[in-house]
Amino acid sequence: MTLTATAPPRSAGTAEPGRRRKSIWSYWRFYLALSPFYILFAVFGLYPLGSTILLAFQKWDGLGPRQFVGLQNFSFLLEDSTFWLSLWNTLVLFVMSTVPTLAIALTLAVMLNSAIRFKGIYRIAYFIPNITSLVAAAIFFAAIFSTNFGLINSGLRALGLPTEDWLGQPWGIKIAVSAMIVWQWTGYNTIIYLAGLQAIPTEQYEAAKVDGAGPLRTFFSITLPQLRPVVLFTVIMSTIGGLQTFTEPQVMVGETGGADQSGLTTVLYFYNTAFRANDYGYAGAIAISIFLLVLLFTAINWRLLRGRSSE
Amino acid sequence: MELSRRTLLAGSFAAVVAAATGCSSSMDAGSGQKKNATGNLALWCWGGGLGKSVLDDTIAHFPDQHIKYSEIGGDFKQKLVTTLNGGTAIPDITGLKGEDIASLLPQADRFVDLKTVGADSVLGEYVEWKVKQATTLDGKVIGLPIDIGPTALFYREDVFAKAGLPSDPAKVAEQLKTWEDLLAAGLELRKANPKAPIVADATDMYGTIINQGTDRYIDKDNKFIGDQDHIRRAWDLSVKAITTKVDGRTPGGTPDWNAGLDQGTVPTVVGAAWVALDIKAASKTGVGKWRVAPTPSGPANFGGSFLAITKNAPDPAAAFEVIKYLLSPDNQAKAFADAQIFPATPAAYEKPQLKAADPFFGGQVPIDVLGPAAADVPIAYESPFDSALAAPYTAALKSVQAGSKSSEAAWQQAVSQAKQIGKRQGVQ
């Protein structure tokens, strides 16, 4: 609704105001057509966002009266070692999961693009992890990484290798959590890369072939540059998703985040603060910090990838 | 046409404004709660929170009240708090979980003080420490106990016997009187059977020891006491379990835990009465091999819940009659038979439903251990911020378990983090 109220006067131009007002109203059908999105966005997006920002400046236990505390929540945030630890965990998990995810996805997509038979089946198979229930998958992964009866340790034992207490060790937790993210998102990114690959004109490849370029040269000189916008999209989507990692560690190692709080991501810390410690105001401040972090990273990604492609 | 456009736009604008103001006004605490106008008595609880036959019987027993029971799934407290804030469709009677009650006590004015509707006549029937949990510092009682979770030592008789440890419950009770005894027995067990650490998980053990005490992390004067001896003792005992390698590092509920219960590699569980259900579910081959003995160093409570009447109830006295009936000793015994909901009324322990021998426990009568435990649970003051302050200790103990931090470094970290959380909440 804000848009309908503020946008029209800008388009009003220079002629006499009476007529202009009428012309605004004459667009009502378009506003009506757009309104479901804006109404839903206002109720479920804008309003919660606004109240979260408001909450970040208050102290509230969820039921009692709210108390305005100014920047106190943010100053706590700066000296809260657990918060910084959770940020570090989130970033490490983000790198550990996004890099392999995108690398594997790109490789798979290139392979799939040149494959001829059973394409549809491969695509479905790759996409299935993405639509699997996150909690069910996390329980499954926790079982795979179990110390005594887990699949991975059974495999190591069968090979005569030493086993590892995956979910009891700081690095084991990070590996288990990122393995699950890789599993879940690789197929999704593969399908997107595949769509990008199929949009590259075949003439370019034919020309490269005529010029005598090998498969590697073709990949780095044609495929990758052509895919840049698609890569930008997947990197930004992965950033937004990766910085909000929550369910995987929560189900696999519990709300404390396991050994050394290694699985405590910022969103998990936010969840604990709000819904376990009933400290909603402070949780609001954490939520805003995640929001700012996502903005920052998206901007960095954008600059890096866009900047290079315009060279 | 002109007119209809205007009306339409004005109408939709008004709808948005109404929605926005509706939302924001509903966030105001307390004010504008609507009384239940339908004549139904809305009752909320979580799945398995109340016995089915007891519930059906209660609904039939109060036909005039039109009790409307709703089973609320998911995060119960979160849904209750949201509804209380929302101001509409608030239940008249609601379940409150034991782990949430401390954080709800500061909001006691959202609930009916049961003493004002005649609770004094029945409160004596319930174990005292449980009623205390639902009592504010100024003496208001906001909940009547549904059930309690007195702890016991559940153990594998066959694993103990094979390792040369006492296996008869009476002998186990005699030899494993304290945590130190248990850790010593653990060393013996480890020698005979290295695959069966006597402590399932040191962080779980730490929680039990804290629950056994009369002091926790914050005292009644809102002072931080999480760095004092009673906490340090629990910490040191748990660290000892880790360093002497009698800690299995298998937290309750994990796949390893479930498999271990069945295969004998998790030979003991120190847990509340309701844990018996989990053990039975996991240990299909363990029928007849499990036994129950008293918790080393005395019983603690874990879990257990309440029924409360919200300020929304149009007739609190009538609502109280319903919960009084629903939670009477007779019905508590029935609820135990229904769904192993452990009664909060000692009178129920004498009923035949609880006196039955349990073939899973080799014909032992678990109430013989759990009944006395229920009576001896210590009374501790639990601050609303208690669980928030407890979290860093468990997290730090996990680091000791993983071997990534020394006990001393982890302890320092836990204390400073807990202090930090306390400071934010106004704890001195």
Automatic annotation (TrEMBL), chain A:
| Statement: the UniProt record of this protein carries the keyword Transmembrane | yes
Matching SUPFAM superfamilies: MetI-like
- One GO biological process term: transmembrane transport
Query: What sequence ranges are listed for the domain ABC transmembrane type-1?
Result: 87-301
Cellular-component GO terms for this entry: plasma membrane
- Alphabetical keyword list: Cell membrane, Membrane, Transmembrane, Transmembrane helix, Transport
Please tell me whether the keyword Nuclease is annotated for this protein: no
Entries under Pfam families matching the protein: BPD_transp_1
- Origin, by domain of life? Bacteria
Q: Topology in the membrane?
A: Multi-pass membrane protein
Where does the record say this protein resides?
Cell membrane
- Transmembrane portions of the chain: 30-57, 87-112, 124-151, 171-195, 227-246, 280-302
The UniProt entry's sequence similarity note says: Belongs to the binding-protein-dependent transport system permease family.
Its recorded name reads Cellobiose transport system permease protein
TrEMBL record, chain B:
User: Which Gene3D superfamilies does this UniProt record tie to the protein?
Assistant: Periplasmic binding protein-like II
Pfam families linked: SBP_bac_8
Which keywords does this Swiss-Prot/TrEMBL entry list?
Signal
- Decide whether keyword Signal is in the record: yes
Signal peptide annotation? 1-29
Q: What protein does this entry describe?
A: Cellobiose transport system substrate-binding protein
